[in-house]
Amino acid sequence: MRFFDRIGNEIERIRTQVPSGQTREYPIAVECHAGRQLSLGAVPNMTIEAKHAASPTWVNIGAAPIDLAPWDGTIQDFDIRITADPVSEDVRELFAIEQTIS
Amino acid sequence: MPFIEEQSEVQPLAIIEMEFEATAEPEVTRAGRATIQMEFTAGGQPSITAAAETQIEMVFTVEAFGGLQGDPDSFGEAEIEMEFTAVAQPQAQSFANALIEMEFTATAEAEVAEPDIPSLTFIVDIVAPRPAATQEYTERLWVDDEEIDIEDWEIVEDPARFDRRLSVTLANIEDGVKITKAATLKFETARMVDGDWVWTTRIESGYAQNSTFSISVDRGRFSFTGINDLRRRLNRSPERRLVIYDPLMQTLDESDFDVIRDTEGRTYPTQLIAVPNLTVRNIFDMIFRDRCGYTSVRTDLPVRTWPLTRIDFEPGTPYIAAIIDRIGLYRPDYEEVGNVLWIRDGTTEHPTGFPVTQIPDATIAAMEIQNDHYRIDGYDVGYVERRRNWDFFTYLTLPMAVSKVEPIDFLGESTTIQTTQTLLEFRRDSNPTAVIGREPWRTEQRSYKGATLIEHWTETYTYNGDGHRIRRSKDTAARVPSLATGLMVLRKIRKEIERWEYRGHPFSRDKMFMRRRTLAVSGEYTIDNDNLQLGQPFTRDTMTAYRVGSLVQGMGIDFGVIHVIDERIEPLTKEIVRIRKTEFDMLAGTVASDSAPEIAGDIGFSALINRQEQVYVFDDENTTRSTERMEFFNGGELPLVHLLKLCRRELRNRKNKPGRKTLEIPGLLDGLARGVAIEAVVEDEGRGTYSVEGMRFRGSPAGHFTQITGEQKG
Questions:
Q1: Is the Cβ of B305 closer than 8 Å to some Cβ of chain A?
Q2: Does pLDDT of B522 surpass 70?
Q3: Is the pLDDT of residue B582 over 90?
């Protein structure tokens, strides 16, 4: 139930910048277990999406969490995508992608 | 659900004792580092029939504890073991037949209150578009809303400090008189966009820290250093000593703390605030929001799951100092955004493949890279684990000890003392065969004169969850004459109840001390209505009356409190202890003795629920182990599940990418913040990702520049 970068280092926190109206992608790896899902609370000023690295479809995990059961017991590559809303002033937000109990 | 039903018939002068044990072993999965909440309900429903003058005393003690066995496991599948021990000791002191029916039901429910929810936290700056601008810049300084001309300036954001410093040389040295202690400073810079200046506030509500006036041959200079409001707000300190603590971990009382007075006689007592299940999140809210005036505090530190036992704030010492003492291991970065305080983890890495902010080489005037070649294999991590010193206890019943004294001649009688003792042996899961502590639980002693039992007593101790004794009871039956018949009868004649209370030590954050000890001795006493003392019946405990030969048939008897000792212990400063001891003669209604000596010594002892532990941490679980170059890392009360990740991250930061880069860029760079990853290339040299750690802006007639200090991480 941990998060890693793509070379196997466990990661907990990310500090990043996204220009207004633009998109940034973050490749991660997730230790998957049945009974858990990738989810997210509401985040203003941006859209957070995720997908399995092998999947072409991005999912807004704030609205539809990704069930990790299909990859139970394995570490899988996922991508996180942040799309910033257009803003006229700099905005700072904090959010956490969680492996909640499904 | 354990269920016990007991039915007993109590004979005159009998003591009935019952006990039961219940064991519950709930299994909690996917809990990781979990907090267990338990409910224990118990009910005793004694019903008494045909019990004239019956007195029932019930003692019911419950011990319930649970915890993760073995190492913390963030993979889930943790197993929680818990044990309940309940002892019920109904004691009937009666002179008639009594029938006691008792029923106990107990339920235990384990609830995972805080299941381990792994998370990946993002702090994201959405950078608003900047209009195309020329490399034209200007600046202005406001002192109490009056604009002051300046000659040159520099702003420094130092990662080692939680402030932004402005150094200014004034254009007109006469304006120096306006730079006062009470002056409010505002500093702005601007760049030219489409023929207009677009202003950016760099310092708001700042204040002057110091100023320098110097005169040289050709001219005079007045310069000063101003600091932004962040430092002033974080530098606030309490007016009186403040202690915020978790009442579930420590018991504190204001009366245990010294009251400080000023020269006018005003008092400054210590303020105690109890917060059950205290965490760093509570401290952030209570200090930064409630006392430093921020609207809120936002942080990516694991503050909600970071427990604290106690934190002390001293007058004259900034709140932030005590907080840094706890969270400093994350090398946090502090920043104001509006009226929100952001506290960011300064150890954050920038994983490979993550987007970084590009600094075009065309904009770089100079670059310097320093490398520290650390030699470190791992950390020797000290941390506090919230558990008792022991995991479980077992009972050890010693063989009966017999002590016999034979008579000097054949006419005499022997005396025999038979003692049976059961001990509690405290043990740990990691080495269950080793006994780490041994305390008495129950002792029974019989004394014989010849073959006649003349005294029989039973003593029982009760302990709290830390393993400290909190209660002792001793029941004594002795062979004394019946005042009704004159015949010698073995009967219950004396009962002692001793209690101990503990509190958190007022001067040592992680210690406790024994605050109070009381002893109440009850027993049978005689009432002499024939030989009055000043017109009142004379009372004396039966044993004493018998030994001094003043028992008379027909005397009245009763059972009540005879003697009381109340001992209060007060730790003073400089390791002096005051012990106030008062003894009451309850039959005479007098204070037998009263004293309050002060003695040297420290009565504090370590709070056993917080135990210092140690573990070696290497940056990779599969790395070749070497302990040649270890450094100590103090993790405090940070839960191990976070601490291990932090240590591994810091090891990677130090071992793999120890570079430090300084970039000099013409112009005033905008939209960059500390912690953001940047990548800069100059003539194909110095490739790599660096985290912005510090920034320096300066302006003078010679031009405007930005200097960025970056640290290579991960």
A1: no
A2: yes
A3: yes
Cβ(B344)–Cβ(B123) under 8 Å?
Answer: yes
Q: What are phi and psi of B89, to 5 degrees?
A: -130, 75
How far from chain centre, in Å, is Cα B694?
34
B217 pLDDT tier (thresholds 50, 70, 90): low
pLDDT of residue B27: 37
Predicted TM-score of the model (pTM): 0.64
Asked if pLDDT for residue A8 goes beyond 90, the answer is no
pLDDT at B615 (0 to 100): 83
Angstroms from A99 CA to nearest CA on chain B: 6
**CB atoms A15 and B676 under 8 Å:** yes
Residues of B in contact with A14 (CB under 8 A): 120-123, 348, 351, 354
Q: Do B129 and A91 touch (CB under 8 A)?
A: no
Q: How many CB atoms lie within 10 A of CB B401?
A: 11
User: CB-based contact (8 Å) between A97 and chain B?
Assistant: yes
Do residues A20 and B129 make contact, with C-beta atoms less than 8 angstroms apart? Answer: yes
Percentage of residues of chain B with pLDDT beyond 70: 75
Nearest Cα of chain B lies from the Cα of A87 at a distance, in angstroms, of 6
Facing B645 at nearest CB: one of A7, A12, A16: A12
Q: Best of B33, B123, B126 to disrupt the A interface by mutation (most A CBs within 10 Å)? A: B126
Please tell me the distance in Å from A21's CA to the nearest CA on chain B.
9
Q: Which helix (H) or strand (E) holds B546?
A: helix B542-547
Q: What is the bridge-based pairing of β-strands B271-274 and B296-299?
A: unpaired
Q: DSSP secondary-structure letter at B269?
A: P
Bridging pattern class, strands B590-595 and B576-585: antiparallel
- Beta strand residue intervals within B194-339, DSSP E: 196-215, 220-227, 242-245, 260-261, 267-268, 271-274, 296-299, 310-313, 333-337
Q: CA–CA distance from B429 to each of B86, B149, B388, B396 (Å)?
A: 21, 73, 12, 18
Q: What number is the average pLDDT over the span A65-94? A: 94
What's the confidence (pLDDT) of residue B605?
A: 61
User: How far is CA B94 from each of CA B11, B16, B488, rounded to the nearest angstrom?
Assistant: 8, 11, 19
In a 3-state reduction of DSSP, which class is residue B558?
A: strand
Strand B185-193 versus strand B196-215 pairing type? antiparallel
Q: Does B349 touch chain A (CB under 8 A)?
A: yes
Average pLDDT over residues B123-145: 86
If you average pLDDT over residues B419-438, what whole number do you get? 80
Contacts of B119 in chain A (CB under 8 A): 3, 12, 96-99
**pLDDT given at position B621:** 59
Residue B268, pLDDT > 80, answer yes
Strand partners, A4: A10, A29
User: If contacts are CB pairs under 8 Å, which of residues 64-93 in chain A contact chain B?
Assistant: 80, 82, 84-85, 87-93
pLDDT computed for residue B637 by the predictor: 83
- Using CB atoms, pick whichever of B32, B125, B677 lies closest to residue A92: B125
Q: Is the pLDDT of residue B286 over 90?
A: yes
The pLDDT confidence band at residue B72, using thresholds 50, 70 and 90, is very low
Model pLDDT, residue B623: 58
Q: Does A41 touch chain B (CB under 8 A)?
A: no
Residue from B484, B404, B486 nearest B451 by CA: B404
Number of A to B CB contacts under 8 A, please give it.
168
Decide if B128 touches A, using CB distance below 8 A: yes
pLDDT band at A59 (very low <50, low <70, confident <90, very high): very high
Report CB contact under 8 Å: A100, B117: yes
User: What tokens does B279 get?
Assistant: 């965490």
